[in-house]
Write a structure and sequence with these properties.
Blueprint (H helix, E strand, L loop, with lengths): L6 H7 L9 E7 L8 E5 L5 E6 L4 E7 L2 E7 L2 E7 L2 E6 L6 E2 L2 H24 L6 H25 L4 H10 L5 H10 L2 H4 L2 H15 L10 E3 L5 E3 L9 E7 L4 H17 L4 E7 L7 H8 L5 E3 L5 H5 L6 E5 L5 E3 L5 H10 L2
Length: 345
């Protein structure tokens, strides 16, 4: 399942850096219905570092630190950048954070983000457009939005707002594009733990991209017997590899598509292999039965294969050629059969 790119979630995961503490205050507003409840401030690790009680629809903090933080009041939340000055936060409205230079910039980015996702919702609700037209326009809108965020990042690549901007688009960037932007960053970017994780994943994705040989790994089958990817891949047949989990709704939606492709091409040299990831081994049997899956499975018992391939979200489906060369990655929907048909006619 694709990991959500809502900026406030990225802010919560972002790291902090800086040479010394700097004073700031927060003047916050919250719904009157939340009077008497507690606003929690969390750090990069999700640990609570401070709290304040809402009184008469207001709350306040005074601290000496810097970095990217998150405020939580039940279903009301937002991220902000701790920097010198008086920061204003209104938990009634996600994008109403400001008062200091980086937080004013953050408010602008949050506003653009909100408009972008509202435009996408409107696009997909338009019954006058075909699915292909929606996909094409959605892709174009996404590229325009990414270009705007990249411009914001390039102008702020030495501060925490730059970190939050790059985190907002990191998931959707091709490895080469992300790594180039990361290399342009200053200390705040280079020391951020979330961006370091993205860097590692993008590098792994690059080394296992189309045209590269598959990377082998060892897991277990449903009986606990050791089994390797190389037991199937590189053995003279095309292998469609499906990274999935029992709890993943989109994975379940792709299963009939994979099954149809398997039935159509199995006599022409296609095999399908499931990689059961980010799940408990005991959940495999029921999921296979419920979904009528008829191809072998490897359980990623050591939680290594997604890191090996830089997979950041599932389902992730790739096609490996007879000689072990990766032919295509991140296949979905109609693209699955289209990729197979290119080689097996």
């Amino acid at each position: 399942m694709m990991k959500s790119l809502i900026l406030t979630a990225a802010l919560a995961a972002a790291g902090m850096c800086g040479a010394h503490a700097q004073s700031y205050t927060i003047r916050g507003m919250a719904p009157e219905s939340e009077n008497g409840k507690t606003v929690y401030m969390t750090n990069a690790q999700g640990q609570t570092i401070d709290s304040a009680v809402v009184r008469d629809g207001k709350f306040a903090f005074a601290r000496d630190d810097q970095g990217i933080r998150r405020l939580d009041l039940g279903r009301y939340y937002t991220g902000f950048i701790a920097e010198p000055g008086t920061i204003t936060v209104d938990l009634n409205d996600l994008k109403r954070v400001g008062g200091t230079p980086q937080n004013d910039s953050l408010a602008g980015l949050l506003g653009r983000m909100q408009k972008h996702y509202e435009a996408l919702d409107k696009l997909w609700a338009d019954s006058t457009l075909t699915k292909a037209e929606k996909t094409e326009r959605g892709k174009a809108n996404g590229e325009r939005y990414i270009a705007q965020v990249i411009a914001s990042y390039k102008a702020n690549r030495n501060n925490f707002f730059g970190v939050s901007a790059l985190l907002e688009i990191a998931y959707n960037l091709e490895p080469e594009r992300f790594l180039a932007l990361y290399q342009e960053g200053g200390d705040a970017v280079r020391s951020d733990s979330s961006l370091k994780s993205y860097k590692k994943a993008k590098e792994s994705e690059l080394t296992t991209s189309s045209g590269k040989p598959f990377a082998d790994f060892e897991g277990t089958d449903s009986t606990g017997r050791p089994v390797k990817l190389s037991d199937y891949a590189g053995k003279g047949k095309y292998v469609l590899v499906d990274f999935w989990a029992s709890w993943c709704g989109p994975c379940r939606q792709e299963t009939p598509v994979v099954a149809a492709a398997y039935e159509k091409y199995k006599d022409k040299g296609l095999e399908v292999l499931g990689l059961f990831v980010w799940d408990k081994p005991k959940n495999l049997g029921k999921a296979v039965k419920d979904l009528h899956i008829g191809w072998p499975q490897i359980i990623d018992s050591n939680n290594t294969v997604c890191d090996l391939y830089g997979v950041q979200g599932i389902p992730h489906i790739m096609l490996i050629g007879p000689d072990g060369t990766i032919l295509a990655r991140d296949l979905r929907g109609e693209g699955i059969e289209q990729a197979i048909a290119e080689y097996l006619r």
